[in-house]
Amino acid sequence: MVVQWVRAVDDSQVAGMYVALGDSMSIDDHAGGAGWGAASLLHRNRDADFPAWAGRDLASAGLTGSVLAWDGATAADVLQCQLPLITEPPAVVTITMGGNDLLMAWGDDAAARAAIGQVIAAGEVILARLGAAGGTGRIVISTVYDPSDGTGRLGAGELLMSWPGGLAALGELNAALAGLAARHGAAVADVHARFLGHGVTAGDPSQLLSMPASRDLWYCGSIEPNAWGADQIRQTWWDALHTQARASFQAGSEPGHLARGALCRRHQVSRWRRADRGAAGPPGAGAAGRGRDDRGRRGRPGGRQAVPGIPDVGEPVAAGAGIRRPGGAGFQGRGRSPVQADRGPAG
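The chain above was modelled as a monomer; its predicted structure follows.
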């Protein structure tokens, strides 16, 4: 049903593209390499490894794909660095964000509340620019998982989970993300609920194998999705899209369209397009990267640190910014593996 629903989109209104925005919940790095991450699998299934999903991917709907997410990205990074790389409204967008913002505030209740507010402030702008307020349902917001499985501990890893208020903060973040999606007509992929029981209660989340012997353990490195976890994130996204598709068909209406121009104000320039740079976005950001290892919180002009609040709120997307892929990179390049951002901090 998802494939038919996506194919029904008006090609004159949107680009035939799937875009993954966000953090390491989306990428290949921790899941086993090129083609193994959640976004890669949603775009093009690995039929030999997941035969039950053959033909159930966005490539089957004729979409190209671009993974703009990177390791360590915060909500501000998604807004300021990843979103400006899109110039045409894509047909499907998945977003994973908020986990790193919470990690940066870990142990401080007040800082966590402020971080959640910043995530949602950024999210309001991101979804408005993507045109989700039109109710297309082709934008998917993901909740953030809990490797402690609700216990507040990580067993052998014992990383981060000593904060008494941590579980409550995570619950607040996820409720806020669901509310954000509801306000903009986006779908919610409840990754948090799906992952419960597949962290510390299933094994040791701090183990480093991308493909552990137990397929019930969905984490590696304490907080990253391994191959089995990436598959489950893909499935959760697909289920969210399927729910929206079914509702659309049951209503007897054609799927809505993303509004042209919602993403790009072609005659205005973002703060990221500086005189000393020829391309929008900081060097190395997203699919337009030049190979510099400056991802996540390090990838800001002039080496600036993250600043409180969301400085880009209300600013237009960079003029002429595009999803630029070097030869051989990207889903449609000669190499056929997705562009993945350089590794950064956790998450």
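Residues 2-7+22-303 form a domain with the Rossmann fold fold (CATH 3.40.50.1110).
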